[in-house]
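Methods — Computational structure assignment.
A single polypeptide chain was analysed. Its primary sequence is given first, followed by the predicted tertiary structure written as structure tokens.
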Amino acid sequence: MGGAGWTREARVADDTDFETLKHLLGSDDGWNLEYEKDGVKVWAEDAAHGALRTVKVVAEFEDVEPDALYDVLHDPEYRSVWDTHMLAAEDAGHINVNNDVGYYAMSCPAPLKNRDFVLQRSWLDTGDEKMILNHSVFHKDYPPRKGFVRALSLLTGFVVRRRESPGSWLGYVSRSDPRGALPAWLVNRVTAQLAPRLVNQLHAAARRYPGWKALTDTPYYKPWRHPEQVPPYRINLEDCIDPDALPPPSEPKPNTSKTKLEVPQVKETESHSIEDLGDISSEFSVEVEEFSELSLDPTKKKGKFYKLVKSMKNRRKSVQVAKSADSLVDGKSSEEKHEKRKSFKFHRRFSLSRGRED
């Protein structure tokens, strides 16, 4: 859902998504501590200059139970009470009992334009810890609206745990792109400053929540805790496919061919004899022999020479032609022949083909 491979895909979150969230909160590598006060710590991710950074917050509350904190993060009615930036919130529908899609609009201080999001939320309660994830998705019923900049949540997550002593532990991770004309450095700075404020708001809201919920008409209505209370309507995931989105890059198919790729090993030709050169010798010997014939007899046709070079056929015959050059030095002694063969090189073949030595 989030992380490096983030996409705007709407799908059911799996265990790996929640493990990624816990790994980010538990990791120390690549994070810089930028704020620490009253039990609240804020870290910013190391990132390249001009890139959006992930922010994480860890806080402990002695006077708030984990269940109350978890309910505050979920309850859409109570959010309108404590979230002073919320302008609108709509439920688009559930994917299943642990995943839903909704719309959220928020105010921004002037001269910035207000932002809105289309988000998929996913949650998991294991008893020992309670986790919530959200990321931006597309939905056909919620196109960009006039007066708002459609922002993106690349990855936002909460983890709530019980402390060893009374109280609760909260971990929060966020990486968002407000889009518009805001530079990345400004977004990073504002995000790091707003994160502790959000945590303090959550803390105050969680302390008041049990009393507020008890006075409502539906004090026991908590579909995030009781799956049987989830509305039966399910959204169609096809409605969450952006028709204008670029297709994902296709992964290269693995080569399953059994053909073994053989890389020819090129030998050092300068220190080898003609017999050891093989096919390499044949290419040059054909060219040398034909060239000498053409130079001796200008009236001879060139067709034979070009056909042999182009098709590279009859290689063995060409080797024999190269070997026949040795017959030009029959008057030499056998010892001299042996020495010349041993030190035979390509440039010497050119000379021998003309019937003289270098």
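Note: The radius of gyration is 39 Å.
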